[in-house]
Model the fold of this input.
Amino acid sequence: MAVTATLTSTERQIGIAISAGLAVLGLAMAAVAKTGPMALHGGMALVLGLALVFHLGGALYDQPEPSARRQAEYYDAPTRFGIVMTLIWAVTAMGVGVWLAALMYWPEATPPVPATSFGRMRPVHTSGIIFGFGGNALIATSFYVVQRTSRARLADAVSPWFVLIGFNLFCVWAATGYLMGQTQSKEYAEPEWYADLWLVVVWVTYFALYIRTLARRAEPHIYVANWYYMSFILVVAMLHIVNNLALPVTWGAGESYTIWTGVQDAMIQWWYGHNAVAFFLTTGFLGMLYYFLPVRAQRPIWSYRLSILSFWGIVFFYMWAGSHHLHYTALPYWVQTLGMTFSVMLLVPSWASAGNAIATLNGAWHKVRDDAVLRFMFVAAVFYGLSTFEGSFLAIRPVNSLSHYTDWTVGHVHSGTLGWVAMIVFGAIYSLVPKLWGRADMAWPRAVEWHFWLAITGTLIYVVSLWNAGITQGLMWRAYDEGGALSFSFIESVEAMLPYYAARTLGGALFLTGAVLCALNCRATMRAAGDRVDEADRPLVPQPAE
Amino acid sequence: MSTDPKTLPGADPHTGNREIDPVTGYDTTGHDWGGIKELNTPFPKVALAALALTVIYSVIAWILLPAWPLGRDYTRGVLGLDQQAMAEARLRNLTDLRAGWLNRFEDPDFAALSDDPALMALAMPAADRLFQDNCSACHGRAGGGGPGFPVLHDTYWLWGGAPQDIALTLQVGINADHPETRWAQMPAFDWMADEELSEVSDYVAAMRSGEADPDGAAATLFAENCAACHGEGGVGGLMNGAPSLVDDAVIYGQDADTVMTTLLNGRQGLMPYWSDRLSDAEINALALYVARMSDAAGSTPSGATE
Ligand code: HEM
Ligand code: HEM
Done:
């Protein structure tokens, strides 16, 4: 069924109006633009808006109206689109990651053009993977989960499309902007002011849609997964707005000055940065874990009380922890002490979540053994536990004096992102794709097993080699000989990294191979879509349209 | 919320019992979200104990260290630590440790310094770190140079290879911002006729192997235009920054094409000055290190001003 056929003709008209608005916005941007990136971004919005106008316009009278029964069905077309985007971003951004890893081993291979320099490609990897891959996965699964756990259809049919398409436009603006040298120079918040404003509109729509859907729920209580998704949406909005407050140099260029200055700027940036880890890379994915793991294992959540403790503990403690990114800097000592202690207290609620997930598997261990999909989720919970333990440890000031500026940080990052974030996403994707495309299983079930082993091997090689790399670097940098002179020159510490960088590239390549296999497997499954209905889905309580 | 178990969600209306999970033996909370249930497991004691431990750790840290803001001030902590003072103290300790041997380099009596093996055993590895961190990006890890950057481990010098000459080169740099910088420029000879340029290029390229024709027209051109800086017959050694053109050492290249480029555009290499970045003692230690690079290569420095 064509996607446009899921919309009524009124909804199609609204869609046309919004798309036309986007096209006009794009035209205006291109018209006032004084610099290439902004003109190009305006052009992209214009083309996208026009394409959508034609797409919806062509369907306006040709496609039949959706059946009246649709209010009694879940609305999964946006989730399907979001999953496809997740896979595309996964392969692209992990591909860039492997490329960057290879460049650190072999810097001479950098092509002599500005767009492919390490400094411009690096944010393409980080934004592409966190926002493109992680963000699309979060939005797509959140739509699925909120409907199932509330037994309510999404509050309307237009805004999920606005959210997903708008969010991907933001991601593409970000990545192409970096390649052209456009950046705010704030890590994970590099996109410029107009992209930031656009994201605010998208995000507010997202939040409103989520709340409206929850308000229609037919269950008496809100399931904990929804609490996590909601905290992700709400806090990311807050972080994004505060950290990106900036004055454009002119309206005609993607260039701006942040309103924050000096050490306050650094503190705001890392309050943002750390809570991006917390509310983008953690709570959203915990929501995913809290839904897909018990469903797949067919086990009840082990402890209701523990989920409450960990939810509020995580939300409360994370907010204070950002200053551990600024140990031994111009930031006052007392702020560092607070960041350190709150990071240590954060360990307990974090482990409560990981432990709750693992204990939920009690009685389903044979499934973990036999089912690679459930194994992805189990491994995700284990790595969540490992990387939060590591994080709390790194936040202790004297430990950080060894680890800071070294590859240990990057190792910690990828133990969290490969082992935890990507694993839980893959678990969710393999659970969802057969259901959403009307099949009993993936097209190539054995490829899932292969993917699992590629992913876990890749992660272990990546993380272990960078632990070694980071600790070696840290020890070399702080070594003095008996005369008080440095024992090693900097370049010697760079040379010592070569074997680790080679190993990291290999680990990353294995992980990427798994992701490519996953994308191909999903494509094969989608091509062989059936019309099987998921029996686990409870019938909806029909609700009148808003 | 009612405390009567019979009215709780999921409870049996007659007995008040709820569904018991056969694996763990716990009852469920009675909620059911699209098939997901939750167990009513009591709060695990280890979690509470762990939370208490981390809180105790934090409270101790707050008591000992600077921690909580108080309007315009903050709690100082009973240890009275200050990160600026701590960093300075650590730096001072290292400086004191180094002073033991480094201070002796303030006096540039290089012969006496080299004669003290104990001192050299401490100083030369330290100078090596300095060289690797500050110089190797241009001059190569072992002083091997590269196009545009002179070799330092050979015996050919632009400005002299005795430690005191090198020390002066380091202090003031070459063509650098220092007011007393060593200054050297290879002017452009783009005004020369094309055939003259190529004759001279071929001539200079042949000089290294000694095959240049001393009586040709090019030799005259060289004597008239170049010898003032590069010396009679291009042998150099005038200590003005112009290299000898008859020896093995090259900076940019001495094949005919590169010499042509040199003549057309001129050359003016830039060697930064270090007196702002390194102490006199460090510069002297480095100068000795660089001078000994060529000794290590098995020859004595030439062109020294001694
Ligand atoms: C209890 C939980 C955690 C704590 C206390 C924690 C703590 C830390 C610390 C101390 C650093 C090093 C800062 C530095 O020296 O520059 C760090 C870096 C980082 N962590 Fe964590 N971490 C936790 C969990 C996680 C998780 C689960 C993820 C990912 C899913 C993650 C992602 C990151 C990232 C991306 C950075 C690098 C930031 C940057 O410098 O760009 N962390 N974390
Ligand atoms: C194929 C797998 C991957 C490879 C080979 C890879 C490689 C890299 C490389 C080479 C860097 C730069 C490190 C540096 O500058 O020293 C990096 C940074 C980063 N990557 Fe990945 N990556 C992969 C997957 C992921 C995934 C799945 C995520 C997130 C979901 C992620 C998030 C990040 C982040 C947040 C940073 C910045 C870390 C920091 O600033 O400390 N990466 N990655």
